[in-house]
């Protein structure tokens, strides 16, 4: 059973930085992608940053140039470095891992989610 835990959220002033961490227990044989999502009250969950198994990264336009996703290959950890934070970055941030599996007849993917960590940016 894979379990994810996010940490690093908190309250920060606009212009500040935070580093979110996502660690997991259990075995993921093939990590197809690691993603960070966020959700603000009354809004849909949105993809913020993604890192594929080939180390390609993608970012939402709203965070490009300010956020950076990375992975520590030696440990089960994915990070989201958030700089130049803005009040509109306030949200609950969720880590999502996409694990590739083989069903016996075809490839498939399992989604794992953390419980979320609150990020609040004051103006």
Which percent bin holds the helix content?
under 10%
Order of helices and strands: EEEEEEEEEEE
- What is the oligomeric state here? single chain
Model regions low in confidence, pLDDT < 50 over at least 5 residues? none
Distance between the termini: 40 Å
**Radius of gyration, in angstroms, nearest whole number:** 15 Å
Largest sheet features? 7 strands, mixed
Shape: elongated
The overall strand count is 11
- Content-based structural category: mainly beta
Can you offer a commentary on this structure?
With 123 residues, the chain is mostly beta strands. It is 0% helix and 59% strand. It has no helices and eleven strands. Strands 2, 4, 5, 6, 9, 10 and 11 form a seven-stranded mixed β-sheet that branches. It is elongated. It starts with a strand and ends with a strand.
Summarize the structure.
By secondary structure, the protein is mainly β. 0% of the residues lie in helices and 59% in strands.
């Amino acid at each position: 059973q894979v379990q994810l835990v996010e940490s690093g959220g908190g309250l920060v002033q606009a212009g500040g930085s935070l580093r979110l961490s996502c660690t997991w227990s259990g075995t993921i044989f093939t990590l197809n992608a690691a993603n960070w999502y966020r959700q603000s009250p009354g809004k849909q969950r949105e993809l913020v940053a993604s890192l594929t198994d080939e180390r390609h990264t993608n970012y939402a336009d709203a965070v490009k140039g300010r956020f950076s996703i990375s992975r520590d290959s030696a440990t089960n950890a994915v990070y989201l470095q958030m700089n130049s934070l803005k009040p509109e970055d306030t949200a609950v941030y969720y880590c999502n891992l996409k694990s590739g599996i083989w069903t016996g007849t075809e490839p498939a993917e399992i989604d794992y989610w953390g419980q979320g960590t609150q990020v609040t940016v004051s103006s």
